[in-house]
């Protein structure tokens, strides 16, 4: 991802927020056979306050990626959407796409089977606790044999990134009034209404105007 000073996202707390809110990640590696990509849910390492992440892949994706032997690129995609030039008013303009993305790169360490189980447990808890009747990993009708058999088909890893690129392209290069017009359009009706993107733009706009005050 090409970086642009106008859109750089450098705040670790904000990057953690994007990762936490958008855990479905794309995992990319370069192998002798070419580029390989997989898609998995990823969590922040709850024992760290940096950008260290934990996750798992299903076998044989560990072999396909050469997990633990070469660099991985893990991509998180935040809210994104189309921005019409008509929302800028009567000025020369072209369409664009607003988005937030975080790229973490590094060589992961392979987790022990016990650590992998803990990560899988956390992963289930992360998504099930909001359900009316949560089904946690160790809860009946699951039993230990069932859980351990499924876990054996996965390989867990922890990645502390050696390279980070994060970008928040949310019309920060436009006048405040123009940004407000885009947000209003995204919050309204129509084929490109996008409330999650509008909320992300308001967050960025607040940081921008706050920095100026």
From TrEMBL:
UniProt xrefs under SUPFAM superfamilies: FMN-binding split barrel
Stored InterPro entries: Split_barrel_FMN-bd (IPR012349), TR_PAI2-type (IPR007396)
Record protein name field: FMN-binding negative transcriptional regulator
One Pfam family, short name: FMN_bind_2
Species of the source: Microbacterium paraoxydans
The organism's place on the tree of life at top rank: Bacteria
């Amino acid at each position: 991802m090409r970086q642009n000073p106008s859109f750089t996202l450098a705040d670790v707390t904000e990057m953690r927020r994007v990762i936490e809110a958008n855990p479905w990640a794309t995992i990319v590696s370069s192998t002798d056979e070419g580029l390989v990509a997989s898609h998995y849910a990823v969590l922040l390492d709850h024992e760290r306050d940096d950008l260290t992440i934990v996750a798992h892949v299903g076998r044989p994706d560990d072999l396909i990626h050469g997990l633990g032997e070469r660099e991985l690129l893990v991509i998180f995609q935040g809210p994104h959407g189309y921005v019409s030039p008509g929302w800028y008013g009567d000025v020369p303009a072209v369409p664009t796409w607003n988005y937030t993305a975080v790229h973490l790169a590094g060589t992961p360490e392979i987790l022990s089977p016990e650590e992998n189980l803990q990560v899988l447990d956390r992963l289930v808890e992360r998504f099930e606790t909001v359900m009316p009747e949560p089904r946690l990993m160790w809860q009946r009708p699951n039993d230990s044999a069932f859980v351990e058999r499924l876990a054996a088909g996965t390989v867990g890893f922890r990645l502390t990134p050696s390279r980070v690129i994060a970008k928040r392209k949310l019309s920060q290069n436009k006048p405040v009034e123009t940004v407000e017009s885009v947000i209003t359009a995204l919050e309204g009706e129509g084929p490109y209404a996008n409330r999650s993107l509008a909320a992300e733009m308001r967050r960025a706009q607040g940081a921008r105007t706050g920095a100026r005050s």
